[in-house]
Amino acid sequence: MTSARILVAEDSRTQAEALRALLADSGYDVRVAKSGSAALEELRRSPADLVVSDVIMPGMSGLELCRVLRADPGLRDTPFILLTSLAEPLDVVRGLEAGADNYVTKPYDPSQLLSRIERTLAHRPDETAQGNGPIEISFFGQQFVIDASRERILNVLVSSFEDVTKANTALRAAEEERERLYEQERVARAAAEEARARAEEANRAKSEFLAMMSHDLRTPLNAIGGYTELLSMGVRGPVTELQLTDLERIHRNQRHLLRLVNDVLSFARLESGEIPLNPTAVRLDATAGPLRAVIEPQARTRGITYEYLGCDGDQTVWADAERVEQILINLLGNAVKFTPEGGRVTMRCGESGAFGTIEVGDTGIGIPESKLSLIFDPFVQADANQGKREGVGLGLAISRKLARAMGGDITVHSVEGEGSTFTLSLPATRALSERGTSTQAS
Questions:
Q1: What is the pLDDT of residues 48-104, one digit of tens each?
Q2: Residue 213: which H helix or E strand, with range?
Q3: Are residue 312 and residue 371 in the same domain, yes or no?
Q4: What is the DSSP string of 8-55?
Q5: Which of 251, 317, 307 has its CA nearest to residue 287?
Q6: Are residues 197 and 69 part of one domain?
Q7: What is the DSSP string of 66-103?
Q8: Does 246 fall in a domain?
Q9: Does 198 lie in the same domain as 86?
């Protein structure tokens, strides 16, 4: 194990300590100076077998320290290694011109640093080995006078070649990694595009199938309804009270089936964007108020109280009035359907920022928290006893799609066992008007 004395000139405490520990663990006697001038004073007090110096330091740089040593008769033969993050060809020539024996670029490989230290110590400069005197070269438009032995020049050039080779290897590895990642991204993008295309095709096929089936089912259902009404009217002859009761049951089930088919058809049309909207300024009170006549009879037959808490007569939203009515009838119907006898269903209007709102609340069974995020999905029903309820789970999906198509939304707040409140939000004409005025003013 060697006992060579090495002086480290490094202004960074962290890097100096790391370098000191590395060299000490390798058996070297290490001293540390925090600057170039401090290193020079230390060398004049006690020479070293090798100097390892950072290039960029406050005050005296590593290059200046090397030049001073080469000009000092007592220290000029001290082997000198530059430790630098500068690895361009011009920097290598500057190191040679200053008189460095070798250099190591940061961040360095510990084994590489130790190898160059061993090589430099094994080939110490010899004054008799100087060539035929100083060499003057022009490099990158700058003049340099290099007074160094061929061995010293060879050491620096070999180190430069090693660093260039290492950099090229790293560059090739980085390029290969970039190509690999690019190929992975290309494959993933192609797979995602293919999956998207398949999903769109499947969705289109589903919508077309639902529309076709709904249309084909509506025709015989309408015929059943028509013939039932004709029989009930006695067009085909007299009917008894029992027969009238049976015909009414047939008619009621026909209407129920027709509603289900119409829901499927509406959903299919919404999915394919085929339902046109005719937005106008809609007075909420004029749309919500008359629905009492539709909902109150249903609520009364189930022993439920219905309350319309009113809307500001001047409150208007920008929407399709027919679609707003469709949404509200669905929300009110659901509230009645899922509220037990003795409960209460309410409807009220309000405002939320730039939106007019209509809230439909009930004191019904509520929705489990685990299903709140699913109830607007098609063919989903939050009630655990789905078999006891009418519908196929499209009402809320259709309602939210319609609301969003009109620039609004439907949200829900529910507590299981206490009830639910569904809020329909639509763009307020007041806010739209103010925004338009503001835009014109700007």
A1: 999 999 988 988 998 999 989 988 988 988 988 888 776 566 667 777 778 888 778
A2: helix 150-232
A3: yes
A4: EE-S-HHHHHHHHHHHHHTT-EEEEESSHHHHHHHHHHS--SEEEEES
A5: 317
A6: no
A7: HHHHHH-TTTTTS-EEEEES--SHHHHHHHHHHT-SEE
A8: yes
A9: no
Indicate which CATH number applies to the domain containing 298.
3.30.565.10
Q: Which residues, 6+ apart, have CB-to-CB distance to 184 below 8 Å?
A: none
- Rounded to 5°, the CA angle 379-381-382 comes to 150
Nearest by Cα to 34 from 68, 8, 65, 56: 8
Residue 155 lies in a domain: no
What is the CATH number for 82?
3.40.50.2300
Q: Report the amino acid identity of residue 248.
A: E
Q: What is the rounded CA–CA span in Å between residue 243 and residue 71?
A: 126
pTM: 0.48
Average pLDDT for the chain: 80
Cα 218 off chain centre by: 45
| DSSP structure string for 141-205 | TEEEEE--BHHHHHHHHHHHHHHHHHHHHHHHHHHHHHHHHHHHHHHHHHHHHHHHHHHHHHHHH
CA distance between the termini of the chain:
81
Q: Are 308 and 294 in contact (CB under 8 A)?
A: no
Domain that includes residue 259, residue range: 184-271
Under a CB-based contact definition with an 8 Å cutoff, are residues 360 and 333 in contact? no
Amino acid at residue number 260: L
Q: Report pLDDT digits (tens) over 304-353.
A: 999 999 887 788 999 999 889 989 998 998 999 899 999 999 999 988 88
> Is 414 a domain residue?
yes
Out of 227, 242, 271, a domain closes at 271
Tokens of 31: 């001293």
Q: Give how many domains the chain has, as a whole number.
A: 3
